[in-house]
């Protein structure tokens, strides 16, 4: 039975595994769970994985199933989408996954420095003509560096070749050392804990159907100060590439 958007929004407010902090509040004060996710939200204290732009929650749910010894949070601004992830988690009794409906700009008010084990950015909207809006742009990379724990990892999965090339170029200039640059389908096969059917999102299925290569880029924060990236590097040639 189809659930209307208005009904989804109503249910979101009642879901115990879905939080909707107002972005205006986050920009002025830390979220009450900041630094306390393991003790105040999840049942067990475990390493935390965050998926940025989680959409319908397919990947976050898959991570939770594949890694029961990890707590997973999916973040997205669209309430009608995260409803699906939260509803599925409740129906399946998954207690190591939760969802946050909010814009990503308040990230450092949601989490304390070093609180995250890893950050996944899976099939993000490219925004190649608006690089400031990218979830893998310098402003977000600075937030990720602050929030990742020692030994933490940033991971990108995309079938947009120019976006992967952007990451290869910009990330090393923003304090991240790329440690893995591989084909995602091959990478899944190499990682025993991953079950492809669990982490295959609708975006991945479309990419496979179109025979698009899916890029997987993994990077580690590098200690030290990070200089500003020159504007000409940020804008050219990315602004001339096809994208939203």
Description:
With about 240 residues, the protein is an alpha/beta fold. It has 12 helices and 8 strands. The chain has helices at about 5-15, 25, 35-40, 60-65, 80-90, 105-110, 140-145, 160-170, 185-190, 195-200, 200-210, 230-235, and strands at about 20, 50, 70-75, 95-100, 115-120, 150-160, 175-185, 215-220. The chain has an 8-stranded mixed beta sheet with strand order 1-4-3-2-5-6-8-7, sandwiched between helices. Strand 5 (about 115-120), helix 7 and strand 6 form a beta-alpha-beta unit. The model has no long low-confidence stretch (mean pLDDT about 90).
Query: What's the quaternary structure here?
Result: single chain
Number of helical regions: 12
Major sheet characteristics: 8 strands, mixed
Order of helices and strands: HEHHEHEHEHEHEHEHHHEH
Globular, elongated, flat, extended or rod-shaped: what is the shape? globular
Helical residue percent? 25-40%
Query: Strand order of the main beta sheet, please?
Result: 1-4-3-2-5-6-8-7
Strand content: 15-25%
> What structural category do the secondary elements indicate?
alpha/beta
Termini distance?
A: 33 Å
| Number of E strands | 8
Overall pLDDT, averaged?
89
User: Which radius of gyration do the C-alpha atoms yield?
Assistant: 17 Å
Note poorly predicted spans.
none
Keywords:
alpha/beta, 12 helices, 8 strands
Gist?
By secondary structure, the protein is of the alpha/beta class. It has helices at residues 5-14, 23-26, 37-40, 58-66, 79-92, 107-110, 138-147, 161-170, 184-190, 196-199, 202-209, 231-235, and strands spanning 18-19, 48-52, 71-76, 97-101, 116-122, 148-158, 176-183, 215-221. Helices cover 36% and strands 21% of the residues.
